[in-house]
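not sure who needs this but someone in the group chat was asking about Exocyst complex component 5 from Pteruthius melanotis so here u go. i didnt clean anything up, its just raw.
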Amino acid sequence: VAHCKKFFFCGQEPFVADEYIERLAWRTPGGGSRGGEAFDPKRLLEEFVNHIQELQVMDERIQRKVEKLEQQCQKEAKEFAKKVQELQKSNQVAFQHFQELDEHISYVATKVCHLGDQLEGVNTPRQRAVEAQKLMKYFNEFLDGELKSDVFTNSEKIKEAADIIQKLHLIAQELPFDSLMGFCCYPLSSPGKYHDLECQLIQEFTSAQRRGEISRMREVAAVLLHFKGYSHCVDVYIKQCQEGAFLRNDVFEDAAILCQRVNKQVGEIFSNPETVLAKLIQNIFEVKLQSYVKDQLEEHRKSDAEQYLKNLYDLYTRTTNLSSKLMEFNLGTDKQTFLSKLIKAIFISYLENYIEVEIGYLKSRSAMILQRYYDSKNHQKRSIGTGGIQDLKERLRQRTNLPLGPSIDTHGETFLSQEVVVNLLQETKQAFERCHRLSDPSDLPKNAFRIFSMLVEFLCTEHIDYALETGLAGIPSSDSKNANLYFLDVVHQANTIFHLFDKQFNDHLMPLISSSPKLSECLQKKKDIIEQMEVKLDMGIDTLNCMIGQMKHILAAEQKKTDFKPEDENNVLIQYTNACVKVCGYVRKQVEKIRNSMDGKNVDTVLMEFGVRFHRLIYEHLQQYSYSCMGGMLAICDVAEYRKCAKDFKIALVLQLFDTLHALCNLLVVAPDNLKQVCSGEQLANLDKNILHSFVQLRVDYRSARLARHFS
């Protein structure tokens, strides 16, 4: 098997001994692997021995071949190592030759550079002499007054002529006029020929620009760069760029498109493209935009403040947007300052008094919105108290008469309008947006505070506060019959409006003042407004007196003495009295109205006060009657219904009061022997004995000796 492994491992497939022996046994007759054939162990053993011998012979042959290959490999390795050593020696020799060649090349290069410097030293003066000779030749032509050279007569060589005249002009300017040479050179130093050639170059530049020949424009601009009229060339370029560029109504979009087009072109023409582009933008701002802005604003400046402010905001916004687009271009080092100065130059006369115009317009517009609303209601505004918070608190503490004197009939009108509020808030929102855009950053918080003060004056004071005062004055007295309680409607609308006011405060005012000292002033002003309104809402607690008064009228009209002392004790068919039904219906409506009119802690505060007064009313009402046994049961049913109604308040104290009242009513029907046990119960044990006694006295059988004895 070991021989087999050595043999088969030289092949491609892995050797598995079990499979190999199995195949050998299968091929051997008598091996027992094929069906129907008797097993012959001797024959199988013989076959295995023969096969092993064959494998041993094969192993020896392969071993000799391996040894031969190993010897050949060692021989070739020695030859290869010898060849590598020879190559290394050849490489060292080649490297030495390269070093010598490099040194020789460096030596030759040094000689060549030295020779070049010598040639340049000889050639430069020679070239200058040649140029001087040419200039002298051209100078003679100028002195003779006849320009015969081709460079002056050929229009295609204007570039060379310009270069010659520029040099002669500079030379002539350096010579003193009182010398003979200076006098002779005067024609060259005077503006005549110089100016004529300059004009000719500018005309050539203009013609090339009209033809759209960028390469010719670049050549002429490069020549004019050394002339005094180079700036005039730039002006001509800027002027021609704008021809036909402002044909649409949107001058800002036209300006952006023009600058985008010139930005792509100017770098191919001028050597200082950022300066040329900046000059174009300056020309657009100072000429086109300034004229356009003036036409748009001066038309409405004195006649229509609303349109004037809208136009100012729109024009300033579009100008700054254009400036943002132009920031993408290369305009020099400080392009932000450059563009800001251009914008300021256009709008400075309008922004100096912007806030005064804004406040004046906002004041007149708000007053008009309010007056138009009151006129639509045929209502003449009454003067209201102007006292501060302390004055209001004092009036609340003393519970004096209502602020506007005698009760007035508002005919169900709350004098609050969602439309008016939306209009006022919209006007103020637009004012805040304009203030943010048009105000100087240092003046922004101050200006925003002034706008906020206008909103407080007209929305909170002139509208909400006036409606609350009028609503307070419209609260009927507690003894009025069929009184309509519109004050809760006023409270409901005022609460909704104030939420809108608070939203605008957070959304539009806060971002403008959040990092300035004006923030504390605005928060304090808002706090004062809230406190003042809450005080007036507290004063409106007199509405609860009217509710209680209405309930008293219902009880007085509907409750009969015979309800609790029926003539026929055995023929009582009702579960609770008619007075109870109507009172509970009225209370549920008022509770729902209070919940809809207020929010937050105010709801619980008012409902608690209302619930306590409701309990006191029922308690005092029950004290007015005498109760038979069946009448006491009916009173218990009434109080149970009142207690169900009290659950709608969702105030623990109110429900506890009615639970106690229900327990007290049990004293009207309990058997005399159980009175002491009931009075010592959980709900009645802590009550004053006089209260318990007062309820027991309401029983028709109270004077019986047995009852009096048990209770005592």
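also Residues 17-31+44-144 form one domain. if thats useful
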